[in-house]
Amino acid sequence: MSDSKVVVLAAGQGTRMKSKVPKVLHKILDKMMIDYVIEAAKEAGVSSICAVVGHQSAMVKAMIGEKVSEFAVQKEQLGTGHAVMQAERFIGEDGDVLILCGDTPLITAKTIKELFEIHRKNENAATVISVMLKDPTGYGRIKRHNHSFDRVVEHKDATEEERKINEINTGVYVFKASELIASFKELKNDNAQNEYYLTDCLEIIKNKGLNVGVMIARDENEFLGINSKLQLAQAAKVMKNRINEKHLTDGVTIEDPENTYIGKDVIIKPDTVILPGTVIEGKTEIGTDCIIGPNSRITNSIIKDGVIVQSSTLLSAEVDNYTTIGPFAYIRPNSKIGEHVKIGDFVEIKNSTIDDGTKVSHLTYVGDSDVGKNVNFGCGTVTVNYDGKNKFRTTIGDRAFIGCNTNLIAPVVIKEDAFTAAGSTITFDVPEGSLSIARAKQINKPGWREKKEQ
C-alpha cells in the first residue's frame, strides 16, 4: 500500500478521563492507546502516518516521537472534519487516505486490510466502517437508501426515527485523497454542535455521483472508543483476553488468564507455563519449558529455555537456560545470568554478569560485578560498589567461595578458587586459591555483664 497514507486523530482533550494526561497517551497494558492504532496501520502495510494533535500537543508529540511520519496541529477543536483539514498538505492528491481515531486501540490490521480491499474492489471514492449495536445511543447513525449509503446523522442531530437505527459509524474511513481534499471546499458547520463533521464529506462525495461504500465490521469491540477510565478498563480487558487467547492457541499454558497480563509484543514459546498474577511487558522473549510466576513481573527481558521465575521482578535482563530465579528476587537492568544459575530469595542483581553454575542463594546484593562460573555466595554478601561519588566493579573468578556476610569493597578482584571468610570486609584483591580473612580478632571479656549492671 505504498500509495496510501494514514491520518490519526489525536487532538482531543478527553475531559471525561479526568486526568492531566492527554487521552490518547493513557495506557492499555504496557502501551499508550495511540501506539496500538499506529501499529495496526503499519501492520496493515501503511507506513506514512500523520498524527493530528491539539490539546497538550507538545506532550503528545514528545511521547509519540518518530512513530509517525509527521504531525499536524489543530489549534481549536472544531470537529473531526476540521481536524483532518489540518493534515491537508500531508494528504495530498494521490492515492488513498485512511482516517483512524487515536482513542480506538482495539482496531486490527486485518480489519484495515479488509477495508482497503473493499474500497478498491468496488472502486469507491470513500468507504466507511459500520457496526450493528443493540444500544447505539451517542453514535452517529448510518442512513441508507435502497440499502446503499445515504448519509451519516450524528446523534445530537438525529430525529427520533433516525435514533432507532442501530447501524452506527465507527469513525474509520478510507477516502480517495483527491476527493477528500475537494470535499473540504464544501464542508460547513451548520449543525447542533457548530462543528465541521468529517461524515459530511461522505455525503458531499456521494452527491457528486461517486461511490461511497459501507463495510459492516464483524467485531464491534474493535471500535470501542475510550472517553473515560471505565471505558479504558473495559478496553484493557478486551486487549488482555485477545493477547492471552493468542498465546493459549500457540501452545502456552496460562493457568488463570483473567489474572495474567501479557503485552502485545511479548513472545512466548510453547510448553511454557504462566502462573497467576504475572505481568509480562515490553519486548520480552521467553523460551520453551519455563515456569513463570506466580506474582512475577518481567519487562523487556530475554529468558531462555527451562527457566523458573518465582514471585520475582526482572527488568531489561537476560537469563540463560535452566536457571532458577526467586522467590522474591530482583534482577535489574543490564544483568546477564548464565545457565544452571540459582538466584534465590531476597537477592538483588544489578548491572552484573553471573556466569554458569553460580549460586547466589539468599539475602545478597550483587551490583556492578562480573562473576565467573560455579561461584558460591554465602548469605548476606554485599558488593559495595558506590563510594558516594563513583561506581566501581567487582570481579570474582571461577569457583570462588564468598563466605556469609562478606562485604566486597569495589574495585576489588577475587581470583579463581579463592575463599573469603564469613564476616570479612575485603578491601584488597584476593590471590588465586587463597583464603582471605578480614575481620577483627574475637575478644571475650569474662564477667562483663555483672560489671555492667553494678
Helix content estimate? 10-25%
Q: Assess the beta-strand content as a share of residues.
A: 25-35%
Q: What CATH architecture label of the largest domain applies?
A: Alpha-Beta Complex
Q: Return the domain count.
A: 2
Overall, the morphology is elongated
Oligomeric state of the chains present here: single chain
Count the E strands: 39
Structure, explained:
This protein is α/β, with parallel strands linked by helices. It folds into two domains: 4-223, Spore Coat Polysaccharide Biosynthesis Protein SpsA, Chain A (Alpha-Beta Complex); 246-436, Hexapeptide repeat proteins (UDP N-Acetylglucosamine Acyltransferase, domain 1), CATH 2.160.10. 19% of the residues lie in helices and 31% in strands. The strands form six sheets. The chain has a 16-stranded parallel beta sheet that branches. Strand 8 (141-145) and strand 9 (148-153) form a beta hairpin. The longest helix has 21 residues, at 229-249. The chain is elongated, with a radius of gyration of 30 Å. The mean pLDDT is 96.
